[in-house]
Amino acid sequence: MAAVRAGVPEHGRVPKYYAVKAELETLLAGLGAGGLLPTEVDLAARYGVSRATLRQALRDLLLEGRLRRRGRGTVVAGPKIEQPLSLGSYTEGVTRQGLRPGRTLVGLDRTSADGPLADRLAVAPGEALWHLERVLRADEERVGLESTYLPVRRAPRLDRDFDPAGSLYHYLHEQGTVLGGAEERIETVLASPREALLIGTPPALPMLLLHRSSRDTAGAPLELVRTLYRGDRFSFTLDLGSAPTG
C-alpha cells in the first residue's frame, strides 16, 4: 500500500490503474527477472479490474522497462544497463556490466559538410565527411542507434580498414588520433518511424537522446555523435566530485 500512497495526488483519489500497477510491482518482485506473468485474463480476475485498466498498468511498466514482451507472453525485465557519462566508448560501458557489446552497420557514406556541420566541426563548407550509422546491441538485443559525422581527413581509410562492429575510438587511437574531451547533452524524445524500425521498438517508447561533440587532445573538433538509447533499457550515471567549500 505504501507504493500506492506515494503516488496519491493532493485530492486523495488514486486512479484504479495505478493501484493495480502497485500490486503488479509486488508480483514482479516475487517472480524475479525472467519470470513469466500470468495472462491478462488471469490478472484482471485476480485484481478485480477490467482488462483495459490492467493494460494501462502493464503499459506503464513496459515503458518503465520493468516488463518485456517475449513471444506471446510478458516477462519481468532485468536491471537496466547503466552507461557512464564519460569519455569511454559504448563498448567499455556495456562490457563493464558483463554484457557483450555489438554494433550492426546501417551505413557508412561519404558526404559533404553543409553550413551547420561545417561550423560545428570547424571545417570548410563542402569538406568531405564520413557519416557512420550503426545499431547498438547488448547481448544481441538491439538497444540503440548511433550516428557519427567525422572529417574524412581524420580517417581516410575508414571504409576499408574499420570493423563496423568495433569501437570507433579504439580505431582512431590506433591511427594516432586520441580523444581529448567532449561535451554531451541529453534529452528525452520519441523515435521516428525509421529509427523505431531499426531499433525494433514501438514508436511510442521514450528514448534517451545523447548529442556529443568530441575534440582531440589539441582541442580541435573531432566528431559529432547523435545516439538514441532505449529508455526502457538504459540509465546513465555520472561520478560527481566533492563541491568546493567556502
From TrEMBL:
Keyword annotations of the record: DNA-binding, Transcription, Transcription regulation
Keyword Nucleotide-binding recorded: no
InterPro entries: Bact_HTH_transcr_reg (IPR050679), Chorismate_lyase_/UTRA_dom_sf (IPR028978), Tscrpt_reg_HTH_GntR (IPR000524), UTRA (IPR011663), WH-like_DNA-bd_sf (IPR036388), WH_DNA-bd_sf (IPR036390)
Pfam families per the UniProt record, alphabetical: GntR, UTRA
Keyword Mitochondrion recorded: no
Highest taxon above the source species: Bacteria
Domain spans labelled HTH gntR-type: 14-79
Name of the protein: GntR family transcriptional regulator
Organism of derivation: Kitasatospora paranensis
